[in-house]
């Protein structure tokens, strides 16, 4: 019960004090994020790691895309597998964990993602 109230309180506070969309998911869920028409998405995680960037593979561009990249080391980040739902402007993060919580943004969209453990009573 406390986890439910905490989730509602955090979501309410974020929506009240900012105009940033807040997405909440349970650990293990597939997170569908509306990212618009951009071919790139950045994220800053709550674990205070360096910024990570995800580039969508488009057309003949098949290198340096399709994975999260650490912007400081330029190396792939081992994290949630990502797939793109082509044609509707959504990015799907498969099997999210609490480590995926943070801010996701590009030139068109800024949103907050919160991942919580499953609620059990």
Brief rundown of the structure:
Helices cover 13% and strands 34% of the residues. It is mostly beta strands and 121 residues long.
Could you walk me through the main structural features you see in this protein, from its secondary elements to its overall organization?
The chain has 121 residues and is mainly β. It has one domain (2-116): Immunoglobulins (Immunoglobulin-like), CATH 2.60.40. The chain is 13% helix and 34% strand. It is built from one helix and nine strands, in the order αβββββββββ. The chain has one helix at residues 2-17, and strands spanning 22-26, 31-34, 40-45, 52-55, 68-70, 82-85, 90-93, 102-105, 110-116. The strands form two sheets. Strands 1-9-8-3-4-5 form a six-stranded mixed β-sheet, with helices on one face. A hairpin with a 4-residue loop joins strand 8 and strand 9. The mean pLDDT is 83.
């Amino acid at each position: 019960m406390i986890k439910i109230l905490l989730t509602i309180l955090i979501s309410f506070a974020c929506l009240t004090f900012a105009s940033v969309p807040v997405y909440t998911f349970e650990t293990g869920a597939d997170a569908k994020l509306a990212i618009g028409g951009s071919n790139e998405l950045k994220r800053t995680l709550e674990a205070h790691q360096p910024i990570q960037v995800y580039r969508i593979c488009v057309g003949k561009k098949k290198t340096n895309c399709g994975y999260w990249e650490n912007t400081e080391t330029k190396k792939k980040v081992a994290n949630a597998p990502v797939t793109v739902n082509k044609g509707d402007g959504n990015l799907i993060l498969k099997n999210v964990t609490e480590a995926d919580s943070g801010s996701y943004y590009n030139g068109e969209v800024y949103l907050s993602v919160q991942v919580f453990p499953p609620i059990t009573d």
